[in-house]
Amino acid sequence: MPRAYVPLPARRPYACRVHQLSPIADRAAAPATLPQITAGDLAWRPATLDDVPRVTALNNTIAEADGAPYRETEDETREELGAAWRDLEHDSLLGFDADGDLRVTAFVAWFPGDTTTVRTFAFGGVHPERRGEGIGREVLAWQLARARQILAASGKQLPARIGTYAEDDDPASKHRLYLHAGLEPRRYFSDLKRPLTGDAPAIPQVELTGSLRLVPFSPELDDAIRLAHNDAFRDHWGSQPQTMEQWTNGRSEFAPEWSYAVVDDAPDVAALLADEATDASTRAALDAGAPLVVAYALNSRFEADFAVRGYTFGYTGILGTRRAYRGRKAALAALAASMRAFADAGMEAAVLDVDTENPSGAHGLYASLGYTKEHGSTMYSIEL
User: Fold this and answer.
1) Beta carbons of 382 and 361 less than 8 angstroms apart
2) Predicted local confidence at residue 250, as pLDDT
3) How far apart are alpha carbons 77 and 203 in whole angstroms?
């Protein structure tokens, strides 16, 4: 699946209105039964982990046909489909033709850590040779119906979202399909590239002040980085807290040797505990004397994408700064160290994705560092 399917940054637009919401079961309006898919005369069944090779192959066939800037590995697919909270029996469908070849995938994902907005996401696709038969329309109807069932069953009296993504270069028919189904363009993302070779600008040297210290990623800091991430993205639209199970899922391409954190060796614990904006999990960590990570850059090496893009690169998947530490260049220090690690490993570029309406002004920061847009994508959603 495109990496854009990983849900990205978010504000808390509805927190003050939760008490005004009708019950989630009413808003979701879940059907008692799911619609049948009759178009294309295909045989349907749920996916299993044994289907990982064929799902990966179909995803890559679709990506190649649509000119997508990525390819998928079987390890990535296995992590996505094998997450502990996934229910493939009820949340997936595979469509096979008369010869037994996979021609369609349909998945609906949800996330256990959601606390301010309960979310579902639809993803999948139709083989390019089977487009134009009405299959995609019926598959999307099934996905939306299943998403409504999941939301209703969650019992969470929160704002709710059914979302999906489309690359800007995807066929116009895909965008029209989403619009026709009632999904609205809600958020726009830019895929940015920053050259590291030739006449590329020098990677900035960032001096940290006070008791802030840049350190390489280590497993011992992993949970502290997760807590920093949950704090950093509390005011970003679409973001929800991640459990440790979610946080560590999907790391087949993770490059710990390219990843960094900034820790505060002498945090003002009293001030942080007195600040009502400090979340409960961070309070617990401070009380326990755990390391306080204040910024981080976690990076990956997507080798399957190198030939597609035409250059080698390091990918910054997650970058952030605790809200209390913004303005101290901590994330910039982690990003600069990441770029230097990419360059030292012989990578030709640094790549990342950003929400174009990111409230921390990240888009401007990346532009100042030499990042420019290469691709884009749109998140479509139904807000309930």
Assistant:
1) no
2) 87
3) 34
CATH homologous superfamily for 192-376?
Gcn5-related N-acetyltransferase (GNAT) (3.40.630.30)
pLDDT one-digit tens code per residue, 128-172: 999 999 999 999 999 999 999 999 999 989 999 999 999 998 999
Tokens representing 30 are 């879940």
The residues, ordered by sequence, that sit 6+ positions from 174 with a Cβ below 8 Å of its Cβ are 136, 166
Q: What percent of the chain has pLDDT over 70?
A: 91
Q: Which CATH number fits domain 3-189: 3.20.20.100, 3.40.50.720, 3.40.50.300, 3.40.630.30?
A: 3.40.630.30
Nearest-angstrom CA–CA distance, 14 and 16? 6
Distance of CA 246 to the CA centre of its chain: 11
Question: Between the ranges 11-15, 97-101, 198-202, 281-285, where is the mean pLDDT highest?
Answer: 97-101
Q: Going by DSSP bridges, is the β-strand pair 118-126/160-167 parallel, antiparallel, or unpaired?
A: parallel
| Distance (Å, whole) CA 227 – CA 269 | 15
pLDDT of 149 reads 97
Residue, of 283 and 123, whose pLDDT is higher: 123
User: Considering only 33-37, 143-147, 255-259, 326-330, which range has the smallest mean pLDDT?
Assistant: 326-330
Share of the chain above pLDDT 90, in %: 70
Q: Which of 118, 189, 126 has the alpha carbon at shortest distance from 382?
A: 118
Where in the chain do CATH 3.40.630.30 domains reside? Answer: 3-189, 192-376
333 sits in which H/E element: helix 330-344
Average pLDDT over residues 23-52: 96
